[in-house]
Amino acid sequence: MLKDSAIMAVLPAKDINRAKDFYRDKLGLEPSETIEESLLYRCGKGTSFLIYQTDNAGTAKNTQMGWETDNLERDMEELRGRGVVFEDYDFPGLKTENGVSTDSFGKGAWFLDSEGNILNIAQRA
Predict the structure, then answer these.
(1) Is 79 helix (H, G, I), strand (E, B) or coil?
(2) CB 3.0 to 4.6 Å from 53: which of 16, 45, 89, 92, for a disulfide?
(3) 3-class SS of residue 81
(4) Smallest Cα–Cα separation from 106: which of 57, 72, 56?
(5) Which part of the chain is the VOC domain (predicted)?
(6) CA–CA gap between residue 10 and residue 46 (Å, rounded)
(7) What's the whole-number average pLDDT of the chain?
(8) Which domains does the chain have, with CATH numbers?
(9) Is the whole-model pTM more than 0.70?
């Protein structure tokens, strides 16, 4: 049943207006809909994500959403130009150099949004 259904990521925001500014100014995204106090964003291939206001934002310690790209370095350069700061990690199973991790899957990079959510861009090998 669910394998054929569309999915939508859901992200928390302590300040929905600050989040809206971040996603517009840093990521170049505009909400396609406003649903009460939530923002719906549409991305490629029919995917989407929702941002809603809650005091629980920024408490997750894991990647909450990611985008797949065909050119990680190009996208990182553009995002850095918009002020996005990529995280560096060094722990078992994940080590980054200049913000990039490389493994058998491919390459990945992580950054925080304005609400402390951990986001990712990745390029498959």
Answers:
(1) helix
(2) 16
(3) helix
(4) 72
(5) 5-124
(6) 15
(7) 95
(8) 6-55+63-124 (3.10.180.10)
(9) yes
